[in-house]
């Protein structure tokens, strides 16, 4: 199990992560844009939003990966508006053999909290959930289901 910092931006993730890359060095392990998402017929993104960062990850060292995404009004939880500088998650990352642990952590940490996205399979090959716990701390649980 690995804990990482997950940051949210509003259209500034790419600029921020190019800056962080210049400071920490290294290469992006992943960079995906909203325009690469499967079309679900519900999402109406502007051309600018299609270029926003859906997910970027920058390994800092063998223990830490800094991750982020841009958020839009459409994908921002109604009970969790974007406030610059405060939209930060703790991301718990698990391996594919730890699915039961992912479920346990999700159920325990989200108890009496607010669910942004329930734990479910995603198009990127993981079980994933996002929520705020009863103390106002934002969490993500991400359990890889396929080999990367």
UniProtKB/TrEMBL annotation:
Gene3D superfamilies: 2,3-Dihydroxybiphenyl 1,2-Dioxygenase, domain 1. InterPro entries: Glyas_Bleomycin-R_OHBP_Dase, Glyas_Fos-R_dOase_dom, PhnB-like. It holds the Pfam family Glyoxalase. It comes from the Bacteria. Residues 3-141 form the Glyoxalase/fosfomycin resistance/dioxygenase domain. This is PhnB protein.
